[in-house]
Write a structure and sequence with these properties.
With 231 residues, this protein is of the alpha/beta class. Helix content is 18%, strand content 23%. It has 5 helices and 13 strands. Strand 9, helix 5 (176-186) and strand 10 form a beta-alpha-beta unit. The chain starts with a strand and ends with a strand.
Length: 231
């Protein structure tokens, strides 16, 4: 049997969103008790209500999110095979919070774990950010961030996407806007809010699956990200 590793955060009331985005709201619409009363005790059902940004918890960005130049490219327009790829995970957990890392650090990580990068890969980057700061204010500010040159490097390698644990891939007001725009120009995207990346280290290649919801012209979507290792 294949081994499945869940890489996704839970979605719940006021769960993780970017500091500039509204919080998710998740609450009962009708409870079993209310339903039983309405149906005079014959049966019951329950339904919950969810209101959230399309960049909630573990999610993928659509090209439309990156700038007005790509406003016609919502998440529903991205081919499904972009979310079903081979994957690798790089270990950059030695980096200090707020470090700006470049291509040299990425290539060292490839060499250290004897990994290669191939067209259409999804490249996940373990920075130990979740381990250090989950549940703390620093989670929203103190991640190591990629320099613009890393996004260019990934684009030139023609990957499908990359993914990080933080709420953004670059450092805000340093490289983050530029990283997003490079993704748009180079035709790649990225995942934010991943978890359990440490469980992928030193295990080589895996199947990466993270399908978005089919939001019409969505600027992104929560995903259930999973790594699959075959026997």
């Amino acid at each position: 049997m294949p081994e499945l590793i869940d890489l996704s955060q839970e979605i719940y009331h006021r769960c993780t969103t970017h500091p500039n985005h509204p919080k998710a709201m998740y609450f009962p619409y009708i409870t079993h008790a209310e339903s039983l009363k309405e149906r005079k005790g014959k049966s019951s059902s329950t339904v919950d209500m969810l209101v959230m940004p399309d960049h909630t918890a573990t999610h993928v960005d659509a090209p439309r999110h990156f700038g007005i130049e790509w406003d016609d490219q919502g998440i529903d327009s991205v081919p499904l095979d972009r979310f079903y790829t081979e994957g690798i995970c790089l270990d950059l957990s030695h980096l200090e919070p707020k470090t700006l890392y470049g291509v040299a650090e990425v290539e060292k990580a490839f060499e250290k774990d004897n990994l290669d990068i191939r067209p259409n890969d999804t490249v996940l980057i373990y920075l130990a950010h979740y381990d250090r700061f989950w549940g703390k204010p620093e989670f929203f500010s103190d991640w190591p961030g990629m320099a613009e040159e890393v996004a260019v490097y990934f684009g030139e390698k023609k990957i499908s996407a990359f993914g990080v644990e933080a709420v953004s891939p670059g450092i805000i007001d340093v490289s983050n806007t530029e990283v997003h725009q490079i993704c748009g120009r180079m035709g790649i995207t990225h995942y934010e809010g991943l978890v359990n990346l440490d469980k992928l280290l030193k295990r080589g290649r895996f199947r990466f699956i993270a399908f978005p919801l089919k939001f019409l012209r969505g600027s992104g979507s929560p995903v259930r990200a999973v790594a699959v290792f075959q026997d």
